[in-house]
Amino acid sequence: MTWNRGSAVPAQTGGRLLEVACDESGSDGENLTSGNTDVFAHASVHLPLASAAESVQEIRDRIRSPAEEYKATHLLREKHRSVLEWLLGASGPLYGHAHVLLVEKSFFVVDRVVELLLGDPGPALVLFRGSRGRVRDEPWQRFLEASNDLMRVRSNGEPSAPVDSFFRAVDALRRAHPDGDAGEILALLSRSHDRARAYRTRIVGSPAVVPVLNPLVPAIVRTAAHWGADGHLVSLVHDEQNLLTAQRIAWLKETARLFGVRLVDSRLDARVQLADFLAGIARKIASDELNGRGDPTLTGLLRPYVDKDSVWGDERSGALLRGPSTTPTA
């Protein structure tokens, strides 16, 4: 259950160009286990600029806040519930013209470390669901944090420290959960010292173009696949991000077969503002659902926008959040 496996970007077939505006919410860089958020959301919107500007003005007229810059938090206030439901609903401006990729951060960490050390992401979901709910919180949390530290480019202490800490955490989790499929996967991980040390040596010496732990770049790849599914050429207008260096943009254009990637200040493009609203709203709704405090109405309104290949491990909330795959409106 990872992105872009079985979801490769199709060869372009001469379709017309779609310019899609994007933004994200919930980015904590490479800190996925102890950051400020437990969900990452990447939203994209395909609308004419004039229509998007009219929609942003409609939101301002309905909310009537004196704030110079509106954010998702304005729409998420209870007193503006009717505006939020309008924005997401079938009569709103986004319906059929927007897409959201959700990432459950703790599962993403497990997915990344299993693929890194076992060469196959397949067992990640089994390990995640089999271990998380059946052991004490402490060994599971230590495993997540050690996995995060193993894979992040920047790490404190000696070069070998993240490796040693990771395998101590694996051993502790095995003692808490020695049997079943999850136990077998942990046993395989416990024998992957060579891969772990080779990875740390490689990234310290020459960090990868695409950081293993940052979900933004692969989210953009998945976004390009979604909008290019019918053979359309896709060009992205994205909110400015430090991660999107010239080197990574070049990688994205080649890997995702993007016609172009342009970075803008979200305040200067109404389409990006709408993507910013949607990303923040989606992250909050998904996080609430993940933590057992979901609002059925809002979850239902978000569902048509959510990518079926979102990186999500929790079975209950995932079933509520992910709807069937939909074809983007050109």
Could you list some keywords that capture this structure?
50% helix, 11% strand, disordered C terminus, alpha/beta, globular, disordered N terminus, 330 residues
CATH level 1 name of the largest domain: Alpha Beta
Q: Quickly count the domains.
A: 2
Strand content: 5-15%
- Overall number of strands: 5
- What CATH architecture of the largest domain do you see? 2-Layer Sandwich
What does the largest sheet look like?
5 strands, mixed
Order of helices and strands: EEHHHEHHHHHHHEHEHHH
The average pLDDT score comes to: 90
Distance between the termini: 28 Å
Helix content range of the residues, please? 40-55%
Shape: globular
Runs in which pLDDT lies below 50 for 5 or more consecutive residues are 1-13, 324-330
| CATH fold-level label of the largest domain | Nucleotidyltransferase, domain 5
Tally the helices: what do you get? Answer: 14
List the strand order in the largest sheet: 3-2-1-4-5
Backbone CA Rg: 20 Å
The structure class reads alpha/beta
Description:
The protein is α/β, with parallel strands linked by helices and 330 residues long. The protein folds into 2 domains: 17-101 and 213-321, Nucleotidyltransferase, domain 5; 105-205, no CATH class. It is built from 14 helices and 5 strands. It has a 5-stranded mixed β-sheet with strand order 3-2-1-4-5, sandwiched between helices. Helix 11 links the parallel strand 4 (233-239) and strand 5. Helix 6 packs antiparallel against helix 7. The longest helix has 21 residues, at 270-290. The radius of gyration is 20 Å and the shape is globular. The model is unreliable at 1-13 and 324-330 (pLDDT under 50).
